[in-house]
Amino acid sequence: MFKGLQVNYSINDIANFLEVTRITEEEPNSKSLDKLLSVQDKISIFKNIDPSELKAIVSDLKFVKYKFKDYVVKQNEESLEVFFIINGECQVFRDKNKIGVLKPGAVFGETGVIFKTKRNASVVCSSEEATMLSFCIDEENIEFCAPALAIFYKNLASQINDKLESLNQAFAAKT
Prior knowledge:
- By secondary structure, this protein is α+β, with helices and mostly antiparallel strands.
- The chain has helices at 11-19, 29-38, 51-57, 110-115, 142-174, and strands spanning 58-67, 71-73, 82-87, 90-94, 97-102, 107-108, 122-125, 129-137.
- It has one domain (11-174): Jelly Rolls (Sandwich).
- It contains five helices and eight strands, in the order αααββββββαββα.
- A four-stranded antiparallel beta sheet has the order 1-8-3-6. It has a four-stranded antiparallel beta sheet with strand order 2-7-4-5, with no helix packed on it.
């Protein structure tokens, strides 16, 4: 089963994140970006990225609230969004079979960004409520952002590696 990433939140960090659960769709992207930058170093996929470069590579940033049984993503959908779970829990299904649980701190959707592919699983909110950071990566300014994109993709590769290790451990435990 997928585990949430090991993250060390302070009470203030959590308060910053929980404040976003009250955000409405009318909130400008810049305000959401400011909130992200205030806790950037606590989210492993954004570690070691210069804040000005992060502003340039992150697009369509929003905080989204899901309710119990809401689909966050559906298998075979086309989407380039990446998600970071702030609070709540989700279950992962592939071909209607439960294959994992995602907890706060988990990142998903990253393989679609790297490989530009359809979703390989469905993710459904399994708690009463879940709040997530949703964003896309803007690769258009690659000359300016190449170092940031390199760091970001390295961080994503680390996420994928962690998931593979978790799956290998689960598989080894069954055999």
